Amino acid sequence: MSVPKLHPTVRYAEPDYWDSRYEREPSLFEWFFGHTALRRIIRAYVSKKKTVLQVGCGTSNMQEGMAKSGYTVINTDISPVVIEQMQKRHAQYPNLTYLVSDCRNMPEFRDCQFGHVIDKGEFEKHTDRFDCKWLPRHCGSWQCNRSSSHSCIQHAGS
Fold first, then answer.
1. 22, 110, 129, 136: which has the highest count of C-beta atoms within 10 A?
2. 21 φ, ψ to 5°?
3. Residue 53: beta bridge partners?
4. How many other C-beta atoms lie within 10 A of the C-beta of residue 79?
5. pLDDT higher than 50, residue 151
6. What is the pLDDT at residue 37?
7. Residue 52: which residues within 8 A CB-CB, separation 6 or more?
8. Residues 6+ positions from 153 with CB-CB distance below 8 Å
């Protein structure tokens, strides 16, 4: 019996993997849902009064939709290529900022700097057909610490 060949491990944590991908595929891309599908959830749980941090923004239309709806969003990604692409694409939106950053370690941000943190991939996999009972439970349990993007979210009531 022969052993099946395994696919090489995808290097999602490496910037050069994403740089190469975004150089080949610079167009908008959604893994699961775009802003139109998620805007009702965003409106229900994300305040326009507080700055939003979006980690792993990629080429999603989420940030453009949020900007048009009046949100201020700091968008981060590990890929310098996609950050440059999105800065050019969204230059007309003063409420969108793009920064190269690794969500596993974000010393460039102060603890509790943001009102909300969105990791769209994580967000989408928990929506359970838009029954968002998970949101308050998960968002309320985040702790302030310096090890990741969680350290950047404000405490409830801030």
1. 22
2. -65, -45
3. 74, 117
4. 24
5. no
6. 84
7. 46, 66, 71, 72, 73, 74, 114, 115, 116, 117, 118
8. 53, 112, 114, 115, 116, 117, 139, 142, 144
Whether the pLDDT of residue 56 is over 60: the answer is yes
Burial of 70 (0-12, 13-18, 19+ CB in 10 A): exposed
pTM for this structure? Answer: 0.75
Nearest to 142 by CA among 121, 122, 120, 116: 116
Bigger pLDDT: 149 vs 115: 115
Sheet of 52-55, strands arranged across = 96-100, 73-77, 52-55, 116-119
Q: 15 or 12: which carries more pLDDT confidence?
A: 15
Q: What is the DSSP string of 80-94?
A: HHHHHHHHHHTTT-T
130 or 27: which leads in pLDDT: 27
Query: Are 151 and 145 contacting, i.e. CB atoms less than 8 angstroms apart?
Result: yes
Strand blocks (E) in the chain: 52-55, 73-77, 96-100, 116-119
20 CB contacts (<8 Å, ≥6 apart)?
none
CB 78, CB 101: distance < 8 Å: yes
pLDDT at res. 141: 32
